[in-house]
Amino acid sequence: MDWHSLPGCFILFADGQPLPMATLAGRMIHFCMEVMTKAPRKRAKPLPPVEIREMELRDVAAVFELGQKLFTAEEWPSLYRSWDDHELALLFSNDAETCLIAEADGNVIGFALGRVMEKPRSAWRYGWLLWLGVDRRFKRSGIATRLIKQLKGLFIERDARIMLVDTAAKNHSAVAFFRRNGFGQEIRHVYLSQNLENDPRYIERKDNSEDDTDD
Length: 215
Prior knowledge:
Blueprint: E1 2-6, E2 9-14, E3 17-18, H1 21-37, E4 50-54, H2 60-70, H3 77-82, H4 85-95, E5 99-104, E6 107-118, E7 125-134, H5 143-157, E8 162-165, H6 172-180, H7 200-214
Parallel strand pairs: 7-8
Antiparallel strand pairs: 1-2, 2-3, 4-5, 5-6, 6-7
């Protein structure tokens, strides 16, 4: 079909032949009704105010729960294995001043957990971003960038000269995010694992444990 313009009117052609006016009127009415009844586009819900602050003891459980939702065995097995409540509690106990959370409406929606490291007999101090996570509902809202910037300031206040972070090479979105935030000088490394269940000592220990249970 194509449209041909005439002074003051439009005629619809089908296969080169003009449509009867009744058919044309019917189609125009149908078109207008479709436009009028089309559902209005929903506006994005505005984000609630988000506060970046130092992590407190009362936040530990919420941070751990959010991490469990983000670091799943299916997507990020290495992170899933490393993320546990004992590790989080230890990090908070030793480095609370460089552990930050993002809070909205009284809920923890993000976190950046870091540590300042100092080598013996060295003038260099390193700020290490160990964990970074943001609730998926708040993705691409600038919260991760705010967490990074505030943590960077804390590292500078503690005389850190370099800020370090690591992520999986296949996590392309994370790599791109860190590059946008000034990280570079990438060094690739490989994670390896070994199944200890095949080791004779593991098998022997398991057999002995089962014998003790039977007794």
